[in-house]
Amino acid sequence: MQKKLHLIFILIFLSFSDVVLSNTKNIIEEDQKTLNILKNYLSNQIVVGKANFKFLFWNMYDAKLITESGYYPSKKFALILRYNKDFSKKSVVDETINQLEKQKPYDQQELEEVKALLNRAFREIKKNNKFIGIKNNNEAVFYFENEKVLETNNTEFINHFFDIWLRKDSQDPEFTKNLLGKS
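Above: the chain sequence. Below: its structure as C-alpha cells.
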C-alpha cells in the first residue's frame, strides 16, 4: 500500500512539474523597471519568443517578443532588444532606414520624417543597453534604458518599424521564426 501511495505521489509530482516546466519558457526575465514599463501597456506579459541576431561572426543583439496572450499577431505587444555590442546612433539609424526601405520606397520628405523619429528613438548604444518598443493598437511608445524617448501614432512608421523583425521576409527568417515562437 505504501509503495502504491509513493508511486501515486511521484506520478502527481511529475505531472505537476511538467506543467510548471513547460511554462518556464514564457517567464519574463527582466529588471523591475522594465517589468513596470510593460505593466503600463500590457495587462499580462507573456513571452511569445526569443531570438539572437548575428551578422557574420558578430553577436549583435537578443530580442524578445511579449504579448498579453503569448501569441502573435496581436494589436498590443512589446519588442525588447538587448544589445550585445556597442553601436553608434548613426549606424543604428542608418541601418533601420535601410531595413525600412526594403519594405517601402520613401520620398525625400518621408525619409526626413522617419529619420527624425529614429533620431529621437535611438541613442549611442553600449553593450547590454536595452531598447523597448511597445505597440498599443495604433500607437507606439519607445524606451531606451527605461527612459521614454518617443511616442508616435504614425501607423505606417509603426507597422514598418516592427516589421523589420516580425515580417515573413525579414532579413533573417530564422530569427523571425524564433521571435514568433515558431521554432
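The CA atoms of residues 5 and 11 lie 10 Å apart.
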